[in-house]
Amino acid sequence: MDLHQLKETPHRRFNPLTQEWVLVSPHRTLRPWQGKLEPRPIDNQPPYDPACYLCPRNSRAGGVVNPDYVSTFVFDNDYTALLPTVEEAKLEEADLLIASTERGICRVGCFSPRHDSTIPQMTVEEIRLVIDMWVDQYHELGVLPWVNHVQVFENRGAMMGASNPHPHCQIWANAHLPNQSSREEASLDKYARKHDSCLLCDYLQLERSRQERIVCENSSFAVVVPFWAVWPFETLLISKRHLGAMPDLNDAERNHLADIMKQLTTRYDNLFEISFPYSMGFHQRPTDDQPHSECHFHAHYYPPLLRSATIQKFMVGYEMLGTPQRDITPESAAAQLCRLSAIHYRERK
Ligand code: H2U
Ligand code: ZN
User: Fold this and answer.
1) In CATH, what number is assigned to the domain containing residue 300?
2) Is 6 inside a domain boundary?
C-alpha cells in the first residue's frame, strides 16, 4: 500500500519515538461543529503592565521585586512544584503502592522585558539571547550532582494554561527522567543499537527527500509535521547535526535555532491571524554524566487549535480510553503551514 491510498482511508500510524499509535480519519474533517468555541486569543497587550508579575520592577508573590532587566531574566518559581531539599524516601507495597520522593528545582525564564513581545515578533538577535539563557540554565542546573534531567518548556496562550501573556518559559530540573523523555531516550537507544544509526537523523533524511511534511528549514534545523502527529498542527523541530543538547550548538547554530523558531511561530500566528497557542519544549540529553550518544536534540510543538481560532481539539473519549485520533492528515497540515507567509501578519497590516 502506498501513502496516497492511506490518505483516503482511516488508518493508524506508529510513533517510533513514543512507541504509540495514532488513528488518522481523513474523511471526518467535514463533520459539523456545535461544540465548545474558545474565545479568540487577545492580541493587544501593553508594552508594560503594572499588574504583571513578570514585568521589570514589578512585585511577585511573596513581595520580591523584579530587577529592571533589559533582555532575559530567570528566577526560582515562587510556587515551585518541586523542592531541592527533600530527603530520599520510598514506598513499595505489594507491587501496587509504589512511590518515592522527588528532588527538583523549578524556574521561570522571561524572554523579554516587553510585556507585549512574543517569539514570532522578537528579532532573531533577541531570541538568540533567550537561547543563551537556556544554555546557561542547562549547564547551571545540569551540573548539580542530583539533577539528571532539565526540561525547558513554554506554555503560550491562556488556552494552553499560560498564566500570563508576558513571554516566558518554565525550566524544571529534577532527579528522575520524566515519562516522555524516558520513553524517547529508550526508543532512540534501541534504534541506535539495531541500525547503528540515529532514529532522528534517519527520519529527517527521509522527510527531506520526500518533502511531504516539511514546514520550513534553514542550514541547521528543519521543522516537520511528524508522520505520527497527534495534534492537528503538531510539529517536530530537529537539528540537522547529530547533537544531544543545547550547549553542543555552535554559535551559528544558536542563531539558526532562533531563526527557525521565529519562522515556525510566525507561520503558526499567520494560520488563523492570532497569537497561536501551544505548549512546546525541548528534549535534550539527560544530565546524568552518561554520554547518551543516542540522544538527538529536538523540540516538540503541541498546538491545540483545529480548524479556526476558536475550535480546539479535545483529547477525550476514545482518545482517553483508547488511542488518540486526528482528522486532517499530517500531510495536509504541513502543506497549510508551508504555504503561509514567513512575514508576521501584524507586520503586514
Ligand atoms: P505559566 O504561565 O506557564 O504557568 O508559568 C508562570 C509561572 O510563574 C507559574 O508556574 C509562577 C507560577 O507558579 N509565578 C511565580 O513564580 N511568581 C508569581 O508571582 C506569580 C506566578
Ligand atoms: Zn509583563
Assistant:
1) 3.30.428.10
2) no
Would the pTM of this model clear 0.90, i.e. be above it? yes
Q: Which of 118, 154, 156, 164 has most ligand 1 atoms within 8 Å of its beta carbon, as the pocket-test mutant?
A: 164
- CA-nearest residue for atom 6, ligand 1, is 163
C-alpha 158 – ligand 1 centre gap (Å): 13
Cβ of residue 163 lying under 6 Å from some atom of ligand 1: yes
Is 315 inside a domain boundary? yes
Q: Residue 65: inside a domain, yes or no?
A: yes
Q: Is the CB of 79 under 6 A from ligand 1?
A: yes
Query: In the 3-class helix/strand/coil scheme, how is the chain assigned residue by residue?
Result: CCHHHHHHCCEEEEECCCCEEEEECHHHHHCCCCCCCCCCCCCCCCCCCCCCCCCCCCECHHHCECCCCCCCEEEECCCCCCECCCCCCEEEECCCEEEECCEEEEEEEECCCCCCCCHHHCCHHHHHHHHHHHHHHHHHHHCCCCCCEEEEEEEECHHHCCCCCCCEEEEEEECCCCHHHHHHHHHHHHHHHHHCCCHHHHHHHHHHHHCCCEEEECCCEEEECCCCCCCCCCEEEEECCCCCCHHHCCHHHHHHHHHHHHHHHHHHHHHHCCCCCEEEEEECCCCCCCCCCCCCCEEEEECCEEEECCEECCCCCHHHHCCCEECCCHHHHHHHHHCCCCCCHHHHC
Which pLDDT tens digit goes with each residue over 156-183? 988 777 889 999 999 999 999 999 999 9
Could you give the number of structural domains in the chain? Answer: 1
Active site residue 176: no
Domain span holding position 102: 13-26+35-347
